[in-house]
Amino acid sequence: MGFKEVFRGLFTGKEDKNMQYARLLDGSAPIFSQFGRDIYASDVVQTAIDCIATECSKLRPKHIRTDQNGMQLNIKGSLNRLLKFAPNELMTTKDFIEKIVWLLFMNYNVFIYPKYDIITNEDGSFKRREYTGLYPLNPTQVDFLQDETGTLFVKFMFSSGQSYTLPYSDVIHLRKKFSVNEIMGGGVNGQPDNNAILKVLEINNTVLEGLEKAIKTSLSIRGILRINTMLEDNKQANERKRFEKAIKDSESGIVAMDLKGDYIDVKANPKIIDKDTMQFLQDKVLNYYGVSVPILTGDFTDEQYQAFYEKTLEPIIISLGQAFSKTLFSNRELDVGNEIVFYPQMLLFTNTKNKIAVADILGNRGALTNNELLQLFGYPPYEGGDVRQKSLNYIDVDIANKYQMKKSGMKEEVKINEQ
Length: 419
Hints:
Elements: H1 3-6, E1 11-12, E2 20-21, E3 31-33, H2 43-56, E4 60-66, E5 72-74, H3 78-84, H4 93-107, E6 109-120, E7 127-137, E8 141-146, E9 152-157, E10 163-167, E11 172-175, H5 195-218, E12 223-227, H6 233-249, E13 261-265, H7 275-289, H8 293-297, H9 302-328, H10 331-335, E14 338-343, H11 345-348, H12 352-364, E15 365-369, H13 370-376, E16 388-390, H14 397-418
Antiparallel strand pairs: 1-10, 2-8, 3-8, 4-5, 4-14, 6-7, 6-11, 8-9, 9-10, 12-13, 15-16
Helix pairs in contact: 2-4, 2-7, 5-7
């Protein structure tokens, strides 16, 4: 499906004549072009971002509603179906989240268009949105406009030359390093400010180029054969071949030569950057993205992964839930407890030890069904397994209080009788 089908019925660039550029407080024009991908030529940068995107792709987004008693209910409907299996016809949920995170780190901004139909009840008194797809966008330029009423619109221009203008309130917008710019993430121009990391990458590239040249040097000229006579070119070639044959035929490592030739050894001693310097450069890049070497290699401890989760992944997870909820639901729907939550349970239970601990704590208290416990360990559900079982070692707090009060009253009664 092309963009024309996705944006069917919406504004196009030809219908912007009644709009003007949105007014920013700093007086700058709200026109933002996408950032060039210079730093993404680095293998370290790509590996770090891929690590974050892959971990985030394990998230499980759900549409829930929290009732007045604080109980969270899963809502059956088109939105949960999209979030669980395929947000659009081209992507699975894993692909969708991975794409979002990549765009976020590449551009420091990512826009997602939720396609929907307006559903009206029979008497026409109520309208609601029926979502049919969620599409990550990768425009080449983004302009922010406003109409006569001050309503904010966003105009997307794509590499194909097509442009579309949508109400900003209808677009999911996630930002990274949202600081000096009023609307966009990144630097003052709404683009990633990569000057600091570019310096490190330039040094790293220089080191790698020097290493390549050093290796080539060490494998090239090893010595000079000086022929102590005047020979023609073809005779020089024959003399060189005779010398190479002598090297090849020698088993002792000693080459016998006559008075006509001298061999001068050229000692190649290329300067190689030490291991600590190479590690320092790599760590500088990884620390910039919040990814440590153990996380990169997969050889991490529980404490190291917890630090990675809290520092790098958790802010993204919170941002995803808030941005999706803000756009997909009306103020009334938000007031009655609707929200999108990106559950990270697949990230938190990283090993069997942690899974056993969770099963022991939550399972014994009836917080998880038998099928949920099986799913935690990778086993399929069984019929009738959606039941919760609770250990008799735990009782309700109110029951415990009543029991203790009753027992205390019995003791007081015994004391009175004794008197």
